Every structure is written in C-alpha cells, then in structure tokens.
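[recover] target loaded
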C-alpha cells in the first residue's frame, strides 16, 4: 500500500516539475516576443515623430506630401488609409489638387488600384499665412491584397492673392502597400 502511494507521489512530482518547467519556458518565450514588439514599436514611434517633425516643423513654404521625395511610405491593407499633404504659406493663397492619377508599379493591377481612391477631388483650400493646412487623399485598400508599389501623380494649382494667376506643379508620391497579418489586423 505504501509502495503505491510513493509511486503516485513521485509521478505527481514529476508532472508538477514538467508543468512548472513548461510554464517558465512559456513565460520566457512570451517575454521575448513582447520585448521585440516593444522595441519595434519604439522604432516606429521614432520614425513617425521624425516624419511629423519633417512635415509640420519645417517652415518651407509650399506643398509637401507623404511619400514624396526620399521619404519611404508604407500603408497596410484592409481599410481606409490617408495620405496627407501639408501646405505652408507666407501669403494668402488658394490651392487646388487636380488630376490625381494612381498607377501600380508592382503587385495589384492599375485598374484595381484606381478603384481604391475614394475621393479624388480634394477641393479648393484657402491657406492663410503662418497656418498649416492639410489636404487628405483617402484610399480604401481591400484586405489580403498582394504587396504593391503605387505611384500617385497629381497637379497642385496655386493661386496667390496678389497675382491671381494660377501656377501648377506636379507632385509624385511613391507608396508601398503591404499585407497586414490576421493577428495584427485584428489588434489594429
């Protein structure tokens, strides 16, 4: 009788030790995942802060859009995504965004990508000196889209209060669209 009780207690102890070991290993695994996620989030926060500083902090006059020039811009799939253009002026001006054209360089077809633009008429924006004005282009990107590279071209027409003569410049934006996994899409 005592022999059976000892075997039962040894088996129980072995199971408890294995369970605690698995619990500790699981906690270490979860900790490593969480730490790498926190580090990644910190890097993203730093990049976003730099982008905001570049867009809002710079006192350059004119239009600067997200994804223009050397700025690398990535958007996730599965929802409405905004592309912002910041306008700074030193005099009263009127801006109009026209002829917004989107082309697929890689991934989804150009005909599919053109349907992603929800509103291609930003309208006429009156810009006051010293005030920052934001123009937004909204894309409705479907879920589970293949990784794509987009080229967005638009004409920006500027009319100043003094001259009344419009001047037009073309802005070219390069945007990468990446697939967001199911877990990340659920959380985000």
């Amino acid at each position: 009788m005592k022999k059976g009780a000892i075997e039962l207690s040894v088996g129980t102890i072995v199971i408890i030790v294995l369970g605690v070991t698995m619990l500790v290993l699981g906690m270490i695994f979860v900790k490593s995942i969480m730490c790498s996620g926190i580090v990644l989030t910190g890097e993203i926060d730093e990049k976003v802060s730099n982008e905001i500083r570049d867009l809002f902090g710079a006192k350059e006059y004119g239009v600067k859009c997200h994804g223009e020039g050397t700025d690398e811009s990535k958007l996730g799939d599965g929802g409405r995504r905004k592309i912002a253009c910041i306008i700074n002026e030193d005099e009263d001006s009127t801006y109009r965004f026209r002829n917004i054209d989107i082309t697929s360089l890689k991934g989804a077809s150009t005909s599919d990508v053109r349907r992603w633009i929800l509103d291609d008429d930003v309208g006429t924006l009156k810009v006051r000196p010293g005030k920052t004005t934001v123009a937004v282009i909204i894309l409705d990107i479907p879920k589970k889209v293949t990784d794509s590279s987009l080229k967005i071209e638009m004409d920006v027409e500027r009319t100043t209060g003094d001259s009344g003569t419009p001047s037009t410049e073309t802005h070219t934006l390069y945007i990468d669209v990446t697939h967001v996994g199911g877990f990340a899409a659920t959380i985000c």
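[recover] notes: The chain has a mean pLDDT of 80.
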